[in-house]
Amino acid sequence: MAEPEASSAAANGGGRLRNAFGGVLSAFTLLLIGVLAFSIRLFSVIKYESVIHEFDPYFNFRVTQFLSKNGIYEFWNWFDDRTWYPLGRVIGGTVYPGLTLTAGTIWWLLNSLNIPLSVETVCVFTAPIFSANASWATYLLTKEAKGTGAGLMAAAILAMVPSYISRSVAGSYDNEAVAIFALIFTFYLYVKTLNTGSLFYATLNALSYFYMVCSWGGYTFIINLIPMHVLLCIVTGRYSSRLYIAYAPLVILGTLLAALVPVVGFNAVMTSEHFASFLVFIILHVVALVYYIKGLLTPRLFKVAMTLVISVGLAVCFAVVAVLVALVASSPTKGWSGRSLSLLDPTYASKYIPIIASVSEHQPPTWPSYFMDINVLAFLIPAGIISCFLPLSDASSFMVLYLVTAVYFSGVMVRLMLVLAPAACILSGIALSEVFGVLTRSLKFQLSKLFDDSSSAVPASGDSSTERATNSTKSENGNEKSETAPKEKPSKKNRKKEKEMAESVPVKPNKKEKRLLVLPFELSIMGILLLIVLGGFYVVHCVWAAAEAYSAPSIVLTSRSRDGLHVFDDFREAYAWLSHNTDVDDKVASWWDYGYQTTAMANRTVIVDNNTWNNTHIATVGTAMSSPEKAAWEIFNSLDVKYVLVVFGGLVGYPSDDINKFLWMVRIGGGVFPHIKEPDYLRDGQYRVDAQATPTMLNCLMYKLCYYRFVETDGKGFDRVRGYEIGKKHFKLTHFEEVFTTHHWMVRIYKLKPQKNRVRGKLKKLKSGAKSSSTLAAGRKNPWQ
């Protein structure tokens, strides 16, 4: 008896040591994954410089500067008079504060520890830091569904996936930098609560959801996906108390916390995006009541009670639906925001809200976009789905539902490829973990079998070292004992034992099923090598995407030619000129794309910016750009505009210039001011800037400001972006004057000429006498029409 006890103690000790070593190895691997996620996003700093990227991040940077300088209370009450002149903007009530508060807190902590980093440096590196956090959250989420191996694989894949890198490189200081981490961590806490039924994790889940609400408007994806999963569990008969604990506190506490965010407020209970969560909340309580009553009553009384509950439940549901229908019917958009309607109906924005359709990241993606952003993961996802069904659990069903909804939304809007990336990484990590498990187990089994065959002369006592012996069950050991026993005529007691053993024999088919997963040695080697090569291709693609495709800041452009590398720093050159050569109170008009950068880098007041909250104001600027020079001057003068900024890429071949965006200005302006008609700017349905362009196009302000003196560059006026010689080459400006053009002609700034002085007593002859003056007074045109 002593020997088995000693062997079992040694086995327990070895198991503890193996588990401890596995935990240390997993922690070290996670640390390396975090370092990888952080370092792969530093190409933008290494190749270029530590600078804020894109457009929206400049506003976030400006707000963070204000927060760190003036404090939290001033931030909540900040009225910004340098944007949307003359309306202004209440920053504290119109911004998602999660990113700003996070970066401000990091800056405050570092300075408290006497680490004197600037606010800009903290903002630049916030996204890489939270990408490491997102990788660790992915590990936790996948581990809850399929174990540690799948979690480590999914975390490593997410650390490098190009779709996430595009929004989290160093300098990409946008809301998604912290929101993706909050999204994944909220899902992890929900699944953790599903698996444990812990109210502690349910409370943490509500707090994590609150952080997501503070960080990004995409929080509505969470508050609709989780109710869908709860409803799926109820319909498929998987209701449990753990499901109730995971969902009910999230709806109650999460909604109350979400209403505390000023930009959300009562929208958390008044808009259609949140109604699904409340409806599922009611259904969940009805189901919980049914299960509770069923446990108390006899089957006969339960039928009577069910009739009563269903009757009352239907009455309550009809009343709730009537109230919701009344609330929804009172809204012209049926209680949905424009962006939400664009997701449900992809044609909605192009029909009714051109300002949403004009944004490039709101366009549907192409098939190459999927291969660019998730690469080989697209081929691993189906295998991951199959693995989730073997076996199906609440956690794995949530992963599949997450993937399906993310695939749909990413197909509607290319920006939401970012939401698809975590789901693709999780499913791919599960698939790779399962495949590696089968291949390595097969390899281990075949190697052990090979060694056993080489020592076949030795008695079979060494079988305990093989995989077959280590995986043998207790019932099989019992069968071996019965086979080695002397063959005697069984007694009644022995026959009973043999009958019990015979009933335990069906365990063997499971063993055979496991052996079916054992592949030949050569096939296992080839499979492992193939997966290593596939992973190598994925790593190379991700590094290339991080270094070349997504690291270049839009504020500084580069191109390579035979002469070497060319740097185009025209944007900062133009903003620096505005900052040093104009008065502090001067107003600058441009298309809304450049509003945030103008305010942050030039510190000048703008008419519109990237917030796009007032469609009429943006339509006014679009109307001015689409109008003839004199009418445009009157519109800008009525807004106290002194300078007009346009972006032109015809000389260097920069395609994202204002001429390519001009038709959106026409559409947005025509949506508010009907005298602007898109067909007037098209020749036979084609948008042209050459000699075949329409007179309306050739005489509009945008055309003149972009192509003024352009013929002087090469003598022909050849536009490298459109591939044409411009139609109107030699013209003069009557109401605007050029004050600055950058080195590569990418940014051009014009000043409104002052209105001519009226000289009393020197009127012309009666050709324009009293009669004409009265006509002018009565017939002066409204510049807005």
TrEMBL record:
Pfam families per record: STT3, STT3-PglB_core
Biased composition (Basic and acidic residues): 477-502
Location of region: Disordered: 454-507, 761-785
Key words, A-Z: Endoplasmic reticulum, Glycoprotein, Glycosyltransferase, Magnesium, Manganese, Membrane, Metal-binding, Transferase, Transmembrane, Transmembrane helix
Cofactors required: Mn(2+); Mg(2+)
Principal EC category: transferase
InterPro entries: Oligo_trans_STT3 (IPR003674), STT3-PglB_core (IPR048999), STT3_N (IPR048307)
Ranges in a coiled coil: none
Compositional bias (Polar residues): 467-476
Catalytic activity as recorded in UniProt: a di-trans,poly-cis-dolichyl diphosphooligosaccharide + L-asparaginyl-[protein] = N(4)-(oligosaccharide-(1->4)-N-acetyl-beta-D-glucosaminyl-(1->4)-N-acetyl-beta-D-glucosaminyl)-L-asparaginyl-[protein] + a di-trans,poly-cis-dolichyl diphosphate + H(+)
Membrane-spanning intervals of the chain: 20-40, 90-110, 122-141, 147-165, 177-203, 209-232, 244-269, 275-293, 305-329, 370-390, 397-414, 420-439, 516-540
Family designation: Belongs to the STT3 family.
Protein's name in the database: dolichyl-diphosphooligosaccharide--protein glycotransferase
Natural source organism: Digitaria exilis
